[in-house]
Amino acid sequence: EDLLSGPKPLAGLKAVVTSGPTHEPIDPVRYIANRSSGKQGHAIAAALARLGAEVTLVSGPVTIADPAGVQVLHVERAEEMRDAVIANLPADIAVMVAAVADWRVASGSDQKIKKQPGEAPPPLMLTENPDILKTVGHHAKRPRLVVGFAAETQNVEENGRAKLERKGADLIVANDVSPQTGVMGGDRNRVQLITRDGVEAWPDLSKEDVAERLALWIAMQMAGAPA
Ligand code: CTP
Ligand code: CA
Questions:
Q1: Ligand 1 within 6 A of 96 CB?
Q2: H/E element, 41
Q3: Which protein residue has the closest C-alpha to ligand 1 atom 23?
């Protein structure tokens, strides 16, 4: 309540947020992508802005509207998302929510690939995409607070911890995206906050409420941490 009265707790701070999927082209009409509505990432960008942060949202292709009070950069591919994020450093806070495609097609075609009657389907050669969170977490201009997400279907805590270390993040927001949870594409989320201090499990909440609480959690951290 204290944080909501008086001056806005994130005033004067810059945040960069990624959201949505990336689309990795196979040819001009086809792509590889992860499932992601962008709902959680967009809600977090809006919540940080409501607390006074100057927010840049780097969004992959989504069907939802740009959130209010936020500068939105629209990108398609992981490499474009990485470039847009890096171009927006220095920042005080990074929250990487996007469901980045782990792989892209090694050599995409400029022309539509046609079916060849009687021939086998074309093989797809994949190459690994840059890890945007890991790049930010180890960057010379690393933000003071680096937050990642971990979409898991099993061993949520253990996998989240490993990601925290590997990517140089301060917080991993881990969620169970097994089909039966309805998190993917839905309006609700149940997350665990994984830091070096331990794990905090939040109840089942709307994605809006997760965003609100996470923005407040971030504001607490920024208030406590040395400038
Ligand atoms: N992430 C990223 N760039 C990538 C892959 C992931 O920035 N190329 C970020 C996501 O935005 C998220 C975090 O890393 O904040 C974890 O993403 P996730 O897909 O769960 O982890 P991966 O490292 O890709 O591992 P895996 O998919 O094998 O579980
Ligand atoms: Ca991944």
A1: yes
A2: helix 39-50
A3: 163
Both tokens of 226, joined, read 């040395």
* Opening angle at CA 36, ends 30 and 41, nearest 5: 130
Query: What are residue 219's phi and psi, to 5 degrees?
Result: -60, -40
Element holding 116 (H helix, E strand) = none
Q: Which two tokens stand for residue 121?
A: 């389907």
* 187 to 38, 43, 58, 156: CA distances (angstroms): 11, 11, 21, 20
Q: For 79-134, what is each residue's pLDDT tens digit? A: 999 999 999 999 999 999 999 999 999 987 889 999 889 999 989 999 999 999 99
* Domains of the chain by start residue, with CATH: 14-103+125-224 (3.40.50.10300)
Confirm whether residue 167 is marked as ligand binding: yes
Q: In terms of DSSP H, where are the helices of 98-188?
A: 132-137, 156-167
- The closest of 148, 142, 101, 107 to 125, measured between CA atoms, is 107
Distance CA 44, CA 58 (A): 12
ipTM over 0.95: yes
pTM: 0.94
